[in-house]
Each structure stands twice: as C-alpha cells, then as structure tokens.
Amino acid sequence: IKARKTAREAIRFADHEYDKVQLASQIEKEMLEAAEALDFERAAFLRDQLRELKELPEFALIESRKKKRSYLATKKLKRQRKK
Hints:
The chain is mainly alpha-helical. The protein is 88% helix and 0% strand. Residues 21-56 form the UVR domain.
C-alpha cells in the first residue's frame, strides 16, 4: 500500500514537472518571437517570467536536461536574424 502511494505521488510530481517544462518552453518560444518582431518590452517581460519559473527549486533538474535544446533555439534565432 505504501509503495502504491509513493508511486502515485511520483506520478503527480512528474506531471507537475512536465507542465512546468511545457510552460517554460512556451514562454521561451513567445519570448523569441517577440524579440524577432522587435517587441523588446514583451520579450523582456517574458524573459523575467521565465527566470522566475526557473528559480523554482524543483525546476533545476529538468532545466539541466533542456539546456542543449535552449542553446539550439538561440543559435537558430541568430541564424534567422543574419538572413
């Protein structure tokens, strides 16, 4: 019974983390789109929102797995700006 409870709690935690990752990805996407559209005030606002989300302690482990993806998104934006 205790194992089932622990498993349910782990699943709930994983779902919560997945939601945060999805939210961070969406905010980052909107931030890059705003910057590309030269809407720097909105991009800065979204950047601050993303920072606040990432400062939550439980987000740290997931963020380390996503760094490569974030880096690639940044490089893609830089390439698009050069065109």
